[in-house]
Design a protein that fits this description.
Order of helices and strands: EHEEEEEEEHHEHEEHEHHHEEEEHHH
Number of domains: 2
Mean pLDDT: 92
Shape: globular
Strand content: 15-25%
Oligomer: single chain
Low-confidence stretches: 366-370
Largest sheet: 8 strands, mixed
């Protein structure tokens, strides 16, 4: 399944058709009207993909620009990751109805359509592995997440360049995809290198007009990845992240809080954040009640409401909780940090707060009070 083959650019549409013939709806990168960025949305064919489009990202900024090339994946990442296709932003969990004096509980799980996502990046696959660890490998396995995850086909594309906000190489999660995919593409000017990672991926591509990749094509793909690594900035190395435990009273947290709007944009676009809240929605007739789950953010005041008090009362405490949870305490829970270096939190912060830069500043300071 790991043989590298060459797929002509003109056959990309055939790949999409083969996926659709397998019963999948196809999700791919599409320009988000009014937002100025790319997002994963349903596509009907290759004509819906961006062509000759590059992204320019920096703190608080995302812009698309035409490059004149024939490439469809010459951008660093999308505004939204693949998280909404496994962890729904809002969903009804169950319903309870009073029938003949008794309470009847009804499951709200529905038949789900098989979904293929085209254009998945290495940082997003690493984030999905973290989501799997939380929702599938913990003591409680979430049936709603599990149902969507089992219907998911992943067509990954290795990055050809990095945005100014990318740092996945320093977290060890990219830019090269090494696992977690069904089909993997490297985009070259003339076409694609293709590999499969699962049997179902191999079945889908079996009849495509592929030929063995040449050593020159393989070298070009490797050079792209190397160039992408060299373009990236860096997060502090894992060996230094434990230092956050001694920086909880660092004055830099207050400086960040003066700029932070506590809007939750960073947690919304983060591919690993999974905070949520559950609530009941009773019917006015008193006969039934629905149980819902909404995505939530640790930047919301009531998210830390425990035993009659808000544990994180201000923006300083909430930003500190978010960063130190990602880079420090996640390691105890999951054996790795909660950041995969996609840089979305930097790009989509309206205040232009640079997560990686702030982490470096805080850990570089000496002698902070604790």
């Amino acid at each position: 399944m790991n043989e590298t083959r060459y797929l002509p650019r003109t056959a990309l549409g055939l790949l999409i058709e083969a996926i659709q013939d397998g019963g999948y709806r196809v999700i791919g990168p599409r320009p988000e009207i009014g937002q100025g960025g790319l997002a994963f949305r349903e596509i009907s064919g290759v004509e819906d993909l961006p062509q000759g489009v590059v992204d320019h990202q920096s703190p608080g900024r995302y812009r698309l620009e035409g490059s004149g090339s024939a490439r469809n994946f010459s951008w660093a990442n999308t505004a939204s990751a693949i998280k909404p296709y496994v962890f729904a932003p809002r969903e009804k969990l169950w319903r309870v109805v009073r029938k003949e004096g008794r309470l009847s509980f009804e499951s709200m799980q529905h038949e789900l359509q098989k979904t293929a996502i085209l254009g998945v990046r290495a940082c997003d696959l690493a984030a999905l592995a973290i989501q799997d660890a939380h929702f599938l490998e913990a003591t409680y396995r979430d049936p709603y997440y599990k149902a969507r995850r089992e219907k998911l086909l992943l067509v990954a594309v290795n990055c050809s360049h990095a945005a100014a906000t990318c740092f996945c190489a320093s977290t060890g999660d990219g830019p090269e995809v090494v696992s977690g995919f069904d089909i993997l593409l490297d985009e070259l000017d003339e076409g694609f290198l293709l590999r499969t990672g699962t049997t179902r991926g191999a079945v889908i591509v079996a009849d495509l007009p592929c030929e063995p990749a040449s050593s020159e094509q393989i070298r070009q793909a490797w050079d792209q990845l190397q160039h992408c690594r060299e373009q990236q900035r860096a997060l502090p190395p894992a060996s230094e992240l434990a230092g956050f435990a001694d920086k909880l009273d660092d004055p830099r947290w207050a400086e960040i809080a003066e700029r932070c709007l506590a809007c939750g944009n960073c947690t919304a676009v983060c591919p690993t954040c999974f905070c949520h809240r559950e609530f009941d929605s009773p019917a006015l007739d008193g006969v039934s009640t629905e149980r819902w789950r909404d995505a939530d953010s640790c930047f919301n005041a009531d998210h830390s409401y425990i035993a009659g008090q808000i544990v994180h009362p201000g923006t300083r405490e909430r930003y500190r909780q978010w960063m130190t949870h990602k880079l420090l305490s996640w390691t105890e829970q999951y054996g790795r940090t909660g950041c995969t270096g996609c840089g979305r939190c930097i790009t989509w912060c309206p205040a232009g707060i640079d997560f990686a830069e702030e982490a470096n500043i805080i850990l570089a300071k000496k002698g902070a009070a604790t």
